[in-house]
Structure formats: structure tokens, C-alpha cells
Amino acid sequence: MAQSSVHLCIMAGADNRYKYLLDTVRLSQPFFAAIHIIDTGSTDETESLGQFRNVRHRRLHGWKDNWPLAYSQAVRDVPDQDWFLFLDSDERPSQLLLDHLANDLLQFDLEGINCAYLPGIMHLSGHPVECETTDLEALLKTWPATHEEFVSSPCWTKRILIKITPETYVKANGGHCGFFQANERGRYLPRFYNHYKSDREIAASTVLCSWNCLESHGVPAGCPEWQYHNELRESTGLMFAKDFLQLAQSGMLPAVWLEFWKTLEFSTYPALVEYWKFAFRFRFSTQIEPNYCGFACCRYRGEQL
Q1: Residues 6 or more apart in contact with residue 231 via CB below 8 angstroms
Q2: Which residue of 77, 137, 157, 160 is surrounded by the most CB atoms within 10 Å?
Q3: What is the CATH number of domain 6-198+288-298?
């Protein structure tokens, strides 16, 4: 039985995370048959990553915040029966995951597994949340060690390692999307990926991912704020997140939006508070912050980030 190849597929967009992506490409390149970057609207140097060997950058024009389309296009060039690891632009596979990936997938193919669930480590402004340790063995005790332990005592995971087949499909709730199998045979994988955020980036991603689907971020469809947000999208012509961000960063956003967002600082809906933060605390900036730490989770062999 020939071993399947594995690809890395990454979403990039208007939040301009070239510096994250550059490190991810440099660290990950030797472990994947190809790296596929689908770009929904970056204005930084993200496109230049296509100059790296086996890195395929492709812009998705006119996608109109159609998240299932973006996800589907991100894996379009992955051959049938190959595997892919799917990450957002602020996520990165750990060295542990990279080192074991080939053998893990070989075993999955032998067992007929077609997807895997991986735990992640959130970093806030360069510091890991709740797992600051330089001891890798101690870090791994944060999660179940086996699939059987996971079944009896689950931890938070993402289904991001997928074998592509004719039965693979995308399911979406606004910007919250995922890949599924019609006949799933899943397995918990005790490796991990790193996820890097700052308060500014949380605000930016909340706004950009919920712009046309507030209900996907906990704002009830039909509530007064939901209704007014969508009325303003219609009346100002800012139907899509990319159009909003371009006007906001050029200082030409209609004042009616700012007047609305001033009322959201103490909203009972956390996502709407992020709108207030993005406008008035962060001034629509998508600038990224240092995204690695000196702990075991961010230790990469032979590479100083």
C-alpha cells in the first residue's frame, strides 16, 4: 500500500498575517508535499510566499464572504486520497506534530482512519494560556494521551487533519467552518498545534468573520443590534468585510457606523463588544504582535523565530 502524501492548507485574508505565515512556511515546508495558501484579500506581502518551493498562493476574487467556497478552494488542489492539515493564518503545527506526521498518517491509512482531532495551545500576545512549561512531557500531560482516554474524558480539539475523498464536505456557520466526512472514522491525535492571538487580533478576526453573519458569533438573529447592523450594511453598501475594512482604514467609514458602535462597549453580546474595541481601542488596526514564546510549545528544531 503506497503511503498518501500530506499537504498543508492555510487560509489568509484581509487581516494581513504575512509575518505569521512566513515563519509557518519556513518551518513546515520540509514536511509537506505542498503548501496551499488561499488568500481572500491580503494587502501585505502574503502573495510573495508563492515564490517558495512547493508553496502555491492563490487569490480568491469576488468570494463575497462565502466561507464554504473559500474552504473548498483552499483544498481544491489536494489530490484524492491524500491528507491535508488545515490551519488559519494565525495557527502553526508544533514540532511534535511535524516530526510524527508521516508515521501517524501511515498508521491511519492502515486502520482506515479518515480524519483526526488535534488539541491546540492558545497564545495571547506571545504567552501560552495555562501551559507555561519548558518540559514537553509535562506539557503533553495537559491532554489525554490516547484515543481511548479522549473518548472517556474529552478535551477541546479541532478536526483539522483530513483525508480527502469524494465524501469530504464543508459545513459552515458563518466564519466557523470545518471539513467533515460522510462516513467518518475519526481518531484523536495527541499532538498539538499553536494558535497565536492578541486582544487586537481577537477584535479584528471577530469583526471580519462575523460581518455578514453575526448570529454565528452569538448575536441572535432578529435582535435589535442584529437588525440595525444589517440595515447599515444595506444602506451604506458595505455588504462584505473586505469593503468595510478598506473604508475604515482609509478614514472614510460613514459616521453612522461609529455612532452605532459607541453604544456597544457594554453590550451583553461579547462579539459586539469586540466591534467597539476594534473601532475605538484599536482604531481598525490589524497589526500583528510577537507570536512565539520560550516554552516547550514553541520550540522548533534548528530555527530561531
Answers
A1: none
A2: 160
A3: 3.90.550.10
pLDDT by residue (tens digit) across 33-70? 999 999 999 999 999 999 999 999 999 998 989 999 99
Q: What is the DSSP string of 51-108?
A: GSTTEEEEE-TT-TT-HHHHHHHHTTTSPTT-EEEEEETTEEE-HHHHHHHHHHHHHH
Q: Whole-structure pTM over 0.70, yes or no?
A: yes
Read off the amino acid at residue 224: P
Q: Is the dihedral of CA 259, 263, 265, 267 positive or negative?
A: negative
Cβ contacts of residue 206 below 8 Å, gap of 6+? 217, 271, 274, 275, 278
Q: How far apart are CA 175 and CA 241, in angstroms?
A: 11
Give the alpha-carbon dihedral of 43, 49, 55, 56, to 10 degrees: 30
Where does the chain have alpha helices with state H? 18-28, 67-74, 95-111, 136-140, 147-152, 199-210, 224-236, 241-249, 255-261, 270-276
Per the model's pLDDT, the better-predicted residue between 196 and 305 turns out to be 196
Q: What residues does 171 pair with on adjacent strands?
A: 178
Alpha-carbon separation of residue 237 from 6, 63, 89, 103 (angstroms): 42, 16, 28, 51
Which is nearest to 209 in space by CA: 11, 75, 49?
11
CA–CA separation, 197 and 81 (whole Å): 33
Q: Where are the domains of the chain?
A: 6-198+288-298, 199-281
Q: What is the DSSP letter of 235?
A: H
**AA identity, residue 194:** N
pLDDT tens for 105-141 read 999 999 999 999 999 999 998 889 878 888 888 889 9
Cα dist from 151 to 117, 189, 290, whole Å: 12, 12, 35
